[in-house]
């Protein structure tokens, strides 16, 4: 009985989750600014795109655990 109650009330939320969400927003802003820029840096665009994908996936997994 105690194990079932403990399993039902566990949450993986930590204060670091807010920082991950903020970093995702900052990376999204950088990615959009690089897309808008007429003189594109393809390395920066690719790096920001991969980072945005990874952080977006982390956000989805993190929020499902809340």
- The number of helical elements comes to 3
Rounded average pLDDT: 91
Element-level helix/strand string: HHH
- Low-pLDDT windows of residues: none
Strand content: under 5%
What is the overall silhouette? Answer: rod-shaped
Main sheet characteristics:
none
The structure class reads mainly alpha
Radius of gyration, CA atoms, in whole angstroms? 17 Å
Distance between the termini: 22 Å
> Total number of β-strand segments?
0
The portion of residues assigned to helices is over 70%
Task: Please give a structural write-up.
Helix content is 77%, strand content 0%. It contains 3 helices and no strands. The protein has helices at 2-8, 16-36, 42-64. Helix 2 (16-36) runs antiparallel to helix 3. The longest helix has 23 residues, at 42-64.
Key terms for this structure?
mainly alpha; 77% helix; single chain
Topology of this protein?
Layout: H1 2-8, H2 16-36, H3 42-64
Question: Could you provide a short overview of the structure?
Answer:
This protein has 66 residues and is an all-alpha fold. It contains three helices and no strands. Helices cover 77% and strands 0% of the residues.
